Amino acid sequence: MTIKDRMIRLVILVWFALFSLTIIYPMIWLGLSGLKSNSDFFLNTWSLPKEWLWGNYKAAWDAGIGQFFLNSVLVSTVSVVTVMLLGSMAAFGLSRFRFKGMNVLLIIILCGLMLAPQVGLISLYKMLQVIGLYNTYWALILPYVSFQLPFSIFLMRSYFLSIPRELEESAIIDGCNNWKVYWHIIVPMGKPIIASCALLTGMNVWNEFMFALVFVEDSSLRTIPVGLMNLRSQLNTNFGIQLAGLAISALPMIIVYIIFQRQFVRGLTAGSVKG
Amino acid sequence: MTKTNQNARTAILFILPALLLILSFVFLPIVLNLFYSLYRWNAFEAGRVFVGLEYYIRLFKDPIFYTALKNNFLFAVISLMFQVGGGLIIAAILEDKLIRKFQPFFRTVIFMPSVVSIVVVGLLWQLIYNPEIGLVNGALHAIGQSDWAHSWLGDSKTAIYAVVAVSQWQYTGYMTMLFLIAMQKIPAEYYEAAMMDGASRIKTFFSITVPQIKEMILVGTVVTVIGAFKVFDEVYIMTFGGPGRSTEVLGTMLYRAAFRNDEMGYASTIGTMIFLITLTLSLIQLKLGKSGQEV
Domain holding B239: CATH number? Predict the structure, then answer.
């Protein structure tokens, strides 16, 4: 390596280190400020907490984050499981059969990828009221599942197309029906893409804000993103507890991302190939 | 092929549940939205009055509509510069052999904000921008530039830029990741050949990297621009369209019409506009994507 290369490398590394700092520092600041008392927060914005008030996290949990967290877990789990099941079934149907009208179905599903959720906001709100699901968990789960399905079908279908057919052909000769082929061959072999889809779907649902704001009204049904907004107005002067609440909400996604980075990236790769 | 392929009915059975959900919760609402935009109606009252295109005429006369369009456009332009332009440069640097061994660390860090909820990011940045206790003004005081300290979200001149900046902070890493993935598929021989010819880094970037990943750049561009017209969360959380109506975007304008002013017909009209804009952009993408394949 020449001296010039070393210099370039040094400059770039310093620049990236500073850049990373602007990303990491606010997050660390969030976690640490969540441990401060209000006066500590105002007087020593920058420094470490004088007293580490772990009780703030407990207080945030009791102030409502706990309930919102459980709601988010429930809504996300049901949505992800449903998307994975219905999505892999549809992807199986669209990758292993050839029939008239398949391309039309494929186009309809892919169009679903492009539509902005805002466009349907008003009519969905009205529809959910008319069918009596407004202000229930279903008011979130059904729209989430429907809006997430196209992306997962798209990813799973491309992956299923690449699974060799020999296995299922011999299975069919042995007398397996299509359901068995789907459940015992395609699903196990498609595990990697199903895992990636589950992660991306889970992330989108966990973080979704607009539908959650409009389709449920009761505080007891709120998911974390909307719950945090409520908490802000409720605790507008207690910054420590508020920040603790934000940290609790952000942490699960950050941990999941760090553990499952490979699956995340695979999902992004597969999803971006054809846009 | 094999006999399973002829069994259309089985295929439909597998596809039907997903298809029904998509049709009823994604497509039907869009059709209904068009219908609803022609009526005057309220959320909690039965009955509606047909008004035809009245709301469309009103929309085109509404100065806030033009503020919103301008702000969405600003989101698009700045996001293109930072997320697509900046992301491309960052990805190219991270792929350079000089610092490739540090790539996994930096990649993990800069992607991280995009997995965090916008609500968390928005509320966090609201505090960071806070004129009294925030980090931004704190940093300016610390480097002796107290004159620059400012109520970033409270001034209608800077508020929209402050909101757009948060979006860049959150999503530049996402685009960078997409570009990295695409760049890693470029055969190494191309770069070796360029190096043999003595091409500089900048020249290699423009003559090899960019042309090789132009599909991804196109996808990234379209996703970013469409995303800019779907913006809602950031603005709702940090400014709710204020101060005044200076940071209003189409999404918040729709929300305000529907759930603050209870003018559901007008809100549907704004919805239709968002639909038309995003549809046009998607069609452009399809067209460009096709011509890209032919070249």
Answer: 1.10.3720.10
Scanning B178-217 for CB atoms below 8 A from A yields 178, 181-182, 215-216
Q: Is B49 helix (H, G, I), strand (E, B) or coil?
A: strand
Residue B139 touches partner A, C-beta closer than 8 Å: no
B225 touches chain A (CB under 8 A): no
Q: What's the gap in Å between the CA of A18 and the closest CA on chain B?
A: 11
In angstroms, the CA A237 to CA A233 distance is: 9
Task: For the domain covering A68-273, report its CATH number.
Answer: 1.10.3720.10
Contact call for residues A112 and B18 (beta carbons, < 8 A): no
Q: Is the ipTM of this complex over 0.95?
A: no
Q: Chain B partners of A29 at a C-beta cutoff of 8 Å?
A: 135
pLDDT higher than threshold 90 for residue A269 = no
Positive or negative torsion for Cα A248, B115, B93, B95: positive
d(C-alpha B116, C-alpha A209), whole Å:
12
Residue B13's Cβ-count burial label (10 Å; 0-12, 13-18, 19+) is middle
- A161 touches B at CB < 8 Å: no
Secondary structure (3-state) at A274: coil
Which pLDDT band, with edges at 50, 70 and 90, does A271 fall under?
low
For chain A, give every domain's residue range: 68-273
**pLDDT for A184-223, tens place per residue?**
889 999 998 999 899 989 999 999 999 999 999 998 999 9
Q: What's the first-to-final CA gap in chain A, in angstroms?
A: 39
Question: Does residue B282 fall inside a structural domain?
Answer: yes
Number of domains in chain B: 1
C-alpha dist (Å) from residue B193 to A231, B20, B106, B197, B206: 59, 53, 28, 6, 15
Pairwise CB contact (< 8 Å): A203 & B115: yes
**If you write DSSP's letter for every residue of A19-85 in order, what string do you get?**
HHHHHHHHHHHHHHHTTS-HHHHHH-SSS--SS--THHHHHHIIIIIHHHHHHHHHHHHHHHHHHHH
- The answer to whether residue B93 is domain-embedded is yes
Q: Answer whether A122 sits within 8 Å of B254, measured CB to CB.
A: yes
Query: Which of A121, A140, A216, A268 is most worth mutating to test chain B (most B CB atoms within 10 A of its CB)?
Result: A121
> Mean pLDDT for each 10-residue chunk of chain B (295 residues)?
61 93 94 93 83 92 95 96 94 87 88 90 88 80 78 88 94 91 88 85 89 87 90 93 90 94 94 93 77 41
Q: What is the pLDDT of residue B148?
A: 77
Query: Distance between CA B6 and CA A270 in Å, rounded?
Result: 29
pLDDT over 90 at A115, yes or no: no
